[in-house]
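I am writing to request your help with a piece of structural work I have in hand. I am sending you one protein, given as its amino acid sequence and as whole-number tokens for its backbone shapes. Kindly check, if you would, that the fold set down in the tokens agrees with what the sequence suggests. You will find the record immediately after this paragraph:
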Amino acid sequence: MLAVLAASDFLVKRLEVFHLTDVSRTYLLPEILKQYQSAYPKVMMSVRSGNSSQVLKMVLDGEVDLGLARSLNHPEVETTSLRDDPLILVGRPNHPAIRKAKARLAEIESWPLIFYDRGSSDWTLTNGLFRRAGLLPNVVLEVETIEACKRMVLRLLGLGFLPLLAVTEELRSGKLRAVVICPSNPFISIEPILAVPGMRAALAACGAPVVAVSPIVGGRAVKGPTAKMMHELGLPVSAASAAARYGDLLAGYVVDTADAEDVRAKVHVAPTLMTTLEDREQLARTVLGFADSLK
């Protein structure tokens, strides 16, 4: 086992280290191996890859010393959780379906979806999500790997449920022009997304300005229960109260005229009430232009 070999570093050992899933091998393992090799340079390692069921079989058969997989439960193996890595729905920003801040599974059912690595835990989890809801996903393409799925998504062939770990590099690489938090209810629409393990850290490290649009216009919520929830929580119904929910995450905040008081982030004042398609397009251009000025 790993601990035994590490303690016997004065000898040259060969460690059948991991039999890995795609996400672990590509996104998690390199840094782990770098640290391990620095600490135990005389231990030779062998790495092999496969899906979760193959990982389990090789551990049970004694073919590897240690397996790393997304999620496994078996009475004959001991498991330790390394990190949470939720699946998120991703698509190109200009894909019509991805423009919504949130969507119900019943809506997603009809959207063109790309699945990957049939038989893996990710594949099983995604299929099970729809099956338990009595839904049949519109799978337009199946590919072998997460990276292949990402390439297909970039080419607008569909949308994919990908591990957050698999898209962290895109967030950090500077390819993002901006992260825009839409003028949705901060309590029930935005905060559940920000509560996803690792999400706030990923946004903070993405290299692109995070800009929010206030859901409050003229001291009132345009629609939905935002104002009611603020009242019940003892908060003033204001753009500042909404911005405070995001803490230090924001680099900039777009508010309507006369709503800019007491906001800690850098503020840009613009008409934010959207009643026509032209209003929406103009606000989008305004927000992106403001984000560019923050870089």
In short: Confidence is low (pLDDT under 50) at residues 1-14. The two ends are 48 Å apart (CA to CA). The chain has three domains: 2-60, 84-172, 175-295.
